[in-house]
User: Fold these one by one.
Assistant:
Number 1:
Amino acid sequence: MIKKIKVDQLRPGIFVHDFNCDWAGENVFINQALIKSDKAVKIIRSWGIKEVYIDTERGLDVKRAKTASEVRRHTDVNLKQLSRNRGKNSPPVVPLKEEIKVARKIKKEAVNLMQQAMASVQEGKQVDVDRAFQLVQSMGASISRNPDALIMLTRIKKKDEYTLLHSISVSSLVLAFCNSCRLPYDMTINMATGALLHDIGKIQVPVEILNKPGRLTREEFAVMKKHSAYSAAILNQSKGLPEDAFDIALHHHERYDGTGYPDGLKGEGITFGSRVTSICDVYDAITSARCYRRGLDRVAGLRKLYEWSDYHFDKELTFEFIHCIGVYPIGTYVRLENELSGVVTASTENVLQPVVRLFYNNKNSAPMKIQEIDLSRFGINIAGYDSPEKWSSDKLQTFKRNRHELTPVQ
Ligand SMILES: [Fe+2]
Ligand SMILES: [Fe+2]
């Protein structure tokens, strides 16, 4: 059985199933291990890890601990509650179908700009800050028309595109966050520009470390950690960049409990912009496919952020971020209270009642005629998440045999 325990409960003989440490933002730590000594526990604590998942079938049990499924159930209830407490979001001004066409062009421009920025750095030239500002402004306009379009487009990355698209994705998430909190325009654009350029220093990290298809060694991680200082040094030479954007490049790996780098800053000692960007940065990293692992689906990503907000992130800002992404992001499989199952295809102003494409009736265990329904218009509630695996291969084959069209939006 998989259980979650505090690091203080770790002792020799326990098998760690998951070190639960992707909040660190890089592929740093080993995946699983049998704890053999007290020294090993000390080392794990020194990494800043606060809670781990253990496998009681492969090592000693810990009686006073919640099982992984209890943790998940508890988290899901809390995710729903925090959205309920925060009320409605602004409804999209333009339908997703329309905005996606504009967002595609913006993404292309952003990829172009990032490629040129990296080339400039390699040639020892400055980053064109004015162009970055202009781009972020058009990204901001797209996000305010419909945040789902640009976020969806930059979320899907081919494995070799990660470094490039990650920066654009983090910037889009920062824009969505600022919009949802109705932050002043100038502050929003400055933060999103910092987010767009936050990892530019990775260009100076050797490519074997940057794209290593396995866990980084301690020495490699020490090199990787330098990228935020490199980013800051590069941007320091670029004229016209505001202080908060520069700070984001330097401090996006600081963690609320002081376990981050490069300065080990804590709590409010980390600027607002860097606290927000760190949340967006980790969310994008854990939900993207990398050369060493599959990305988490978006709900699993939100669950992880929720868990880690106990220690590593600003709790209030994490809750705001979860609310802004929506506890039922596009592409999430859900089961309604009326026993119909479907996939979320668009958001509405009520984050708990999005638009859902229905395709299965659980009452008679049979596929149904595909129909799209705006739950907010009919006051229908979602009972819970369906796991994406449940709707994989077998069921989809059945749909095909029944000639139903099923095209979950990803
Ligand atoms: Fe980074
Ligand atoms: Fe990053």
Number 2:
Amino acid sequence: MIKTKLCELLGIEYPIIQAGMGPFQTQKLAEAVANAGALGIISTSGIIFGSLGIDLGPLTAGKGGSYDTVTKYIREVGKGTRKKGATFGINVMVSAELGAPAMEFVRAAVNARDEDPDIREGLKVIITSAGDPLPWTDVIKSSGLKWFHVVPSVRHAKRAEKAGVDAVIASGHEGGGHVAWEPVHTMAILPSVVNAVDVPVIGAGGFCDGATLAAALALGAVGIQMGTRFIGTKEADTCFGDIWKNRLLKTDDRSTIVARGFVGPLRYLRNEASVQLAKLTVEKVPDLFVGHPDITLDQALLATELEGHKALAGQNDEKALFYGGEVAGRIQDIPSVKELIERMVEEAEDIIKELPGKVIV
Ligand SMILES: Cc1cc2nc3c(=O)[nH]c(=O)nc-3n(C[C@H](O)[C@H](O)[C@H](O)COP(=O)(O)O)c2cc1C
């Protein structure tokens, strides 16, 4: 049994968080993860795109108003987790341009808890990401929810601590989907953040099994957040259909690529569509890979990304854009969420128990 401060903080059995994975829907996944004893997270960024009138195709989340849609998602997951008294949260991207819908999500979460005691029991945390946490202190700290913030650097981690978060999630560049402009990977960022702040730290980017869970604990983390590995599970929502899962099973250790996406750089599984987006990135945002990016989004890039999202619905394996981390190459099966979590924890326990016999100190 692996228990850490993260388990105590949220009342969960295992120190594992399912990552927010907008613009896709993750209510079913969140429910399965929460019921398996880890932390399930509802994704909301698809709702934002929908409310901004940006059509990412039929498989992504979000039609209608932000407040009502997120309330619906919270109630769905609340209903599915109530019997087990399981714990879940929501991910809210708080970059400056998304401030208004982000505020609606926080309001929806607070009100959903006020209106239903079961939801109050289950919905315990807001994970903010992709923006400055400081303007959010008053509204989140008075909400009764725990607050975690995703950070890509030591500087950002210190700022999150100053804002009053209960934990930071240090996110390395090998992760799937949204990655930082500066390519600092988990092995470097995670221990640096652990050393820099006093609040508990969770690692994200590159975690998928017991060995990586044990490694995160060895680096000083209180738990891990996983995105890509959870896409490759039976209960992942229908937006991560067989086409996506089969693609995961086909990848090897060099099968991802970073390109400029809608909200900054994103890591994709390598195929025709992502290679084309990366080529366009080199042309349109040549500074992306040298650390001084122009953050204005080029329209040709946006159009290409939108095409890739729509191709996902068209089931075209080479034309569709699939977000995915470097661990994609390590995924060789599609277990149930419960099987995956229990297997990981068991493996991590074995590794930790066997380690003293493998070293001479
Ligand atoms: C499909 C997908 C969508 C993502 N969308 C979001 C998002 O909406 N908000 C966010 O903060 N991070 C997002 N991320 C990043 C994850 O939250 C997480 O940090 C990352 O998946 C961890 O790395 P891993 O994929 O190696 O597990 C996304 C990742 C993936 C794979």
Number 3:
Amino acid sequence: MSTALITGASSGIGATFAQVLAQRGTNVVLVARSEEKLQQLAQSLREQYAIRADVIVQDLLKPEAATTVYSAVQALGLSIDLLINNAGFGDYGKFSTRDRQKQLDMVQLNIAALVDLTHQFLPAMLERRSGSILNIASIAGFQPMPYFSVYAATKAFVLSFSEALWAESQDQGVCVLAVCPGPTESQFFEVADFPTALASEGQGIVPAETVVKEALQALERQQSNVVTGGLSNQFVVNAARFLPRSTLVKGIAKVFGPKA
Ligand SMILES: NC(=O)c1ccc[n+]([C@@H]2O[C@H](COP(=O)([O-])OP(=O)(O)OC[C@H]3O[C@@H](n4cnc5c(N)ncnc54)[C@H](OP(=O)(O)O)[C@@H]3O)[C@@H](O)[C@H]2O)c1
């Protein structure tokens, strides 16, 4: 039986990964800050699917959080076959007016914690010549996004980092996949203060199940990245290839900027 460790497993896309993987007979290790939600999910997965479900309550913003998670996994006597770096958040608005600490925390969680967890778990996978890492990026990572500037930049990092590791690890039996969802049902927009109407403008917000199923299919095909959701998401990520960058970024500023 294989084991997946999922960060940000207490809600949204992370909780859905846990549900779908457990249904497929995978043991899960659930990581986030909300202990009660994690324990409830773990209990329900154990009862429904007769799998092992462990909980590690961890704020990934804490110093040495990845080392703490790695040690907790060792203490549980587990070996991780699939690491899903999913925990993350955004923050909508003009950069200069937004809370400074929230911007720094976003970089810490979306980038530094993901890099550190990858660095903790990847070597054993390479040694075993098996295992997968799935990093949740975003369609926001394909172009700069005024009024969502730090978030889009963190996801550009995740996309670039993951694709580079995919090429480094591919011939050693380990797959690293960048998952790039578009607007997806979760608490994301609320946490980001993002106007939901804006998020779904011209396109549907898809259920988290769509992201999870398409990501797992892409992993089976050993892809380096996958843009989940409908055709409109493909349009967004490909726009950057055809338009001059300044035209693109000005256009995005018009769409995402405050309306007069
Ligand atoms: N929803 C979308 O439209 C969308 C689109 C593209 C990409 N994404 C990406 O998808 C990923 C999952 O987001 P979601 O949409 O499922 O949003 P969500 O429902 O808000 O879930 C975020 C998860 O991250 C966890 N988290 C937040 N801060 C944390 C911290 N300091 N330490 C540990 N865990 C923390 C939260 O758990 P606790 O609060 O319990 O810690 C929660 O489980 C994120 O990386 C997001 O950027 C989302």
